[in-house]
């Protein structure tokens, strides 16, 4: 078209750019082609620029997108609601929700109009950033204005409130919506069911499911999977299987996520045979198990000390051109370490790195745990230093493990050194950290140090639990320090820990 003697109008070129965006979401290509138009002196119109704004927003190049808005205004055009909404969406996609709010205020102040889609986009952005209160405030502003909130807006806020465990507030918004004549859909009900599940109100969640059915709103696979997952996490596997049966009876076909949820549930209870049966059912149902399916199955085998079966499954993933993720690697590495196959585990660490997946603190904690329980304490100290030197994001669990290993291995001075380092680095030490160190002192008969640390622990605002007291009391009784033990025992009773 560019090489034709009579160059087509910008309208024809815009049609092509529009098609590319719709069919392939190939935003970089759109920008490249538009640059060719500019090079050939073909002037863009507002529609072409709007497509470009959308492309830049999706690529995270917000500055370029806003410079094009300036170009629209300089050309004497007025940006339409679609262009303005695209810019709001772009800011929200790039986690710049506050800028999106300021842009909204600026647009309204200049007399431009936004619609329910614009506000839906803005409220969705606020909710995704955890700013549910701000989203609610915007909802209240809408209710008093010309643009009325729709089902999408209400459902988005209900979903966000439920994820924040503010289920009662979510039901209030739900009631308001219904009173205003906006009928809920499967998305609205699913959000409420999820909210009830995460606050352990499963009976109410099932009642709500039945209410959906009575109102001829068919629960989808996502709705059923929420409930199945909740039953699994509560250890109610019979109820989870019953819900699966109800789902299939109503003609809703389970997907790989549903089966993964059930597998995870059985895996938590070490019922590896049932995990394997569901894994096979997934395949027989014509579904391809995903990386998570394999990770759960590998975890099940490792927990049941069936490490060879886990390795076979891991190799099967490679044969099927399925790339294990960090969770898969960490699961198998933990299983190998636990079974004493350290060299095989290190090979997997190297394989991870070769595949561009960086080992994380969970990876190294598996090795650290094995080294500590087998009293390879110098290697454990060296590994902990390596984690620190490589700037791997580590947690308190790593240090707790190392302190525990050093205390049990008779290396109290080294444990004290690690403990003091944590103080210097400003860590907010947990009950476990203090209790582990107190246990180390007690093991060596250093009761004054143990009691001093107990006192220091409380001064730092960390409240000792029953385990902390029991460790000191038992050690005192064993050493014949009965008076001190009885005094602590009485304190323990006074605190309601016994």
TrEMBL record:
Entry-linked SUPFAM superfamilies: HCP-like
Keywords on record: Repeat
Pfam family, one: PPR
Top-level taxon: Eukaryota
First and last residues of every PPR repeat: 45-79, 80-114, 115-149, 150-184, 185-219, 220-254, 255-289, 290-324, 325-359, 360-394, 395-429, 430-464, 465-498
Gene3D superfamilies hit by this protein: Tetratricopeptide repeat domain
The family this protein is said to belong to: Belongs to the PPR family. P subfamily.
Entry protein name: Pentacotripeptide-repeat region of PRORP domain-containing protein
């Amino acid at each position: 078209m560019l090489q034709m003697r009579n160059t087509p109008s910008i309208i024809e070129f815009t049609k092509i750019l529009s098609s590319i965006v719709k069919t392939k979401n190939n935003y970089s290509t759109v920008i490249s082609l538009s640059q060719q138009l500019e090079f050939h002196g073909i002037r863009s119109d507002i529609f072409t620029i709007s497509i470009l704004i959308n492309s830049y927003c999706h690529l995270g190049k917000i500055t370029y997108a806003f410079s094009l808005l300036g170009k629209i205004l300089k050309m004497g055009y007025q940006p339409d609601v679609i262009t303005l909404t695209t810019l709001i969406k772009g800011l929200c996609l790039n986690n710049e929700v506050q800028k999106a709010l300021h842009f909204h205020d600026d647009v309204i102040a200049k007399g431009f109009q936004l619609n329910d889609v614009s506000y839906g986009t803005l409220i969705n952005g606020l909710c995704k950033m955890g700013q549910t209160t701000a989203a609610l405030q915007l909802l209240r502003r809408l209710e008093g204005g010309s643009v009325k909130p729709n089902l999408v807006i209400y459902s988005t806020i209900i979903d966000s409130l439920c994820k924040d465990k503010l289920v009662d507030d979510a039901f209030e918004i739900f009631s308001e919506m219904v009173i205003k004549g906006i009928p809920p859909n499967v998305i609205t009900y699913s959000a409420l069911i999820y909210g009830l599940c995460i606050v352990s109100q499963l009976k109410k969640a099932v009642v709500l499911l039945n209410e959906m059915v009575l109102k001829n709103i068919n629960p989808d696979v996502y709705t059923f999977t929420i409930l199945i997952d909740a039953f699994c996490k509560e250890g109610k596997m019979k109820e989870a299987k019953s819900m699966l049966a109800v789902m299939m009876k109503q003609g809703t076909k389970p997907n790989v996520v549903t089966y993964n949820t059930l597998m995870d549930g059985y895996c938590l209870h070490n019922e590896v045979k049932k995990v394997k049966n569901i894994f096979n059912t997934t395949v027989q149902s014509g579904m391809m198990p995903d990386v998570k399916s394999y990770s759960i199955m590998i975890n099940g085998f490792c927990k049941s000390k069936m490490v060879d079966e886990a390795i076979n499954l891991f190799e099967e993933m490679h044969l099927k051109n399925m790339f294990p993720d960090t969770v898969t690697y960490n699961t198998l590495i933990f299983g190998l370490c636990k079974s004493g196959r350290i060299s095989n585990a290190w090979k997997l660490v190297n394989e991870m790195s070769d595949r561009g997946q960086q080992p994380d603190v969970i990876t190294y904690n598996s090795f650290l745990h094995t080294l500590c329980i087998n009293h390879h304490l110098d290697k454990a100290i060296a590994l902990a230093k390596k984690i620190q030197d490589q700037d791997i994001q580590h947690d308190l669990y790593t240090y707790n493990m190392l302190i525990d290993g050093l205390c049990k291995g008779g290396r109290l001075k080294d444990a004290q050194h690690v403990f003091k380092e944590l103080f210097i680095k400003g860590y907010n030490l947990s009950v476990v950290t203090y209790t582990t160190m107190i246990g180390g002192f007690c093991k060596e008969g250093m009761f004054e140090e143990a009691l001093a640390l107990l006192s220091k622990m409380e001064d730092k605002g960390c409240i000792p639990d029953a385990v902390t007291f029991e460790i000191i009391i038992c050690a005192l009784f064993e050493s014949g320090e009965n008076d001190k033990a009885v005094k602590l025992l009485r304190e323990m009773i006074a605190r309601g820990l016994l």
